[in-house]
């Protein structure tokens, strides 16, 4: 699945809900299905800076694609990183760095988060793209 297809799927899923309480519940459910980071990667150097909650993100490259795992100590934040991982995991570094993220505005995520959580979302995206740039530079 391409990044765009994953984004379209998420937009469709969010459009099924009538209000933001239902969407928050859905985000929390997505967090529960997050492929968890191995405990050995749940270390200081994998913490995303700029997040109110603790969010660990690990990336590894396999066969030219980058795969992400993560965890957070906050249930909503865990759901937000789960959405991002669903979009970006299993994609090439080039596609990740070039990705358009309009889907976040389309589902209304940023505007329905507290300012500190919205900053955390930006930090998560930045970290995902930094990993992709680093892998791109290696190859």
TrEMBL record:
- Domain Fe-S metabolism associated span(s) in chain numbering: 12-130
* Matches recorded under Pfam families: SufE
TM helices/strands, residue ranges? none
* Position of the signal peptide: none
Q: Superkingdom of the source? A: Bacteria
> What family does this chain come from, according to its entry?
Belongs to the SufE family.
Instruction: Please give the name of this protein.
Output: SufE family protein
């Amino acid at each position: 699945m391409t990044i765009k297809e994953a984004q379209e799927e998420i937009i469709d899923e969010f459009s099924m809900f009538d209000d933001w309480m239902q969407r928050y519940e859905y985000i929390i459910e997505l967090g529960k299905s997050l492929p968890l980071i191995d405990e050995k990667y749940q270390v200081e150097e994998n913490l995303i800076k700029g997040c109110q909650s603790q969010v660990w993100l690990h990336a590894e490259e396999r066969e030219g694609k980058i795969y992400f795992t993560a965890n957070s100590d906050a249930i909503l934040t865990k759901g937000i990183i789960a959405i991002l991982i669903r979009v970006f995991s299993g994609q090439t570094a080039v596609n990740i760095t070039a990705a358009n993220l309009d889907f976040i505005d389309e589902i209304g995520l940023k505007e329905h988060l507290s300012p500190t959580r919205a900053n955390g979302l930006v930090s998560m995206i930045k970290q995902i793209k930094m990993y992709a740039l680093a892998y791109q530079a290696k190859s």
